[in-house]
Amino acid sequence: MVEVSKEQVLEALKKVRDPDLGKDVVSLGMIKDVQVCGDAVAFTLELTTPAHPRKEQFLEDCRLAVGSMEGVATVNVRQDSHVTARPVGQDKMTIEGVKNVIAVASGKGGVGKSTVSANLALALAREGAKVGVLDADIYGPSQPQMLGIPDEKPMADGDNKIFPLSNHGVKIMSMGFLVDEDSPVIWRGPMVMRALVQFLGDTLWGDLDYLVLDLPPGTGDAQLTIVQQVSLAGAVIVTTPQDIALLDARKGLQMFRKTDVPILGIIENMSYYECPSCGHRENIFDTGGGERAAERYEVPFLGAIPLDIKVRLGGDRGEPIVVGEPESPVAMAFREAARNTALQVAIHNSSAPFTVPELKIIG
Predict the structure, then answer these.
(1) What is the pLDDT of residues 82-132, one digit of tens each?
(2) Does the pTM of the predicted model rise above 0.85?
(3) Tell me, what DSSP letter sits at residue 317?
(4) What structural domains does the chain harbor?
(5) CB count, 10 Å around CB of 95?
(6) Degrees (nearest 5) of the Cα angle 204, 207, 212?
(7) CA-based angle 124:128:130, to the nearest 5?
(8) For residue 59, with 0-12 CB atoms within 10 Å meaning exposed, 13-18 middle and 19 or more buried, which class applies?
(9) What is the structure's pLDDT at 335?
(10) CB 325 within 8 A of CB 331
């Protein structure tokens, strides 16, 4: 009987390549703890995110690569993940425990950006990631209501550090927790900027794989504060298919590009309506605009989210559709978009330069 070695197993696994990172799984360090006992082989496949869109394909490819070896009768592949972290750039603030900060933005209001932010975060959490949401819309915070804790108040420690609230498996911080529901926030730009910096730096997030920032619409003070203060893993641009929304979305995309923030991709919300009774599809706001914009600006198209009244109902009652109806077509569309987003974070992190602060010699 032919006996295989660990080295031969690793050699066989080099046939399995990650098409996004352009290398094989062995060179990428994704194969751990190879064990050979007679004709049985076991090893761990460690992915760059628990939300990897190709994890089932990777598992099957690894099983086939090793299972086809002479002398191997059984293959046991354990799956694990280690989310890579975005390097903190020089002169950027460190958010303790947070690996990746994802900005969700739109050029205009009314495209469902907050709904997308909440469901993206919840979808990432359902895949097994540790996730937080920062509602960065100081004037119009909506995440407390959307995530089901509108009447809660956060606590602080002795150093005035804030403990985020949590629900549905994600941690949440918002100006909505600190002001009465009917009280407007009447602040000038500098006060908004200080509040955002405090929310980022003085919130005890703990260990997070992804912190999703629900930004206000536009390209103003809040957006500039974020890109100047934080090393963003990237930005997700939310749009609807019609031309006027795409015009503003392109402006938002270009703002992030000019400030050297990676564009993770575009999500087209309210992409189409499908009648639940007869299955007829109606393109209420046109169709394909987000995908065409992604192609024009050479950025990934992360997904199309259908228009469904259940999305609105779930957000109103604090139970977004990814939680309330996780197997519905809309929830599955959000989960696909979340997987694609997590993959883009891993791709950009793999090529991000690690910035070493300049050393100052004293004396």
Answers:
(1) 999 998 887 888 899 999 999 999 877 888 999 999 999 999 999 999 999
(2) yes
(3) T
(4) 13-81 (3.30.300.130), 98-351 (3.40.50.300)
(5) 21
(6) 80
(7) 70
(8) middle
(9) 97
(10) yes
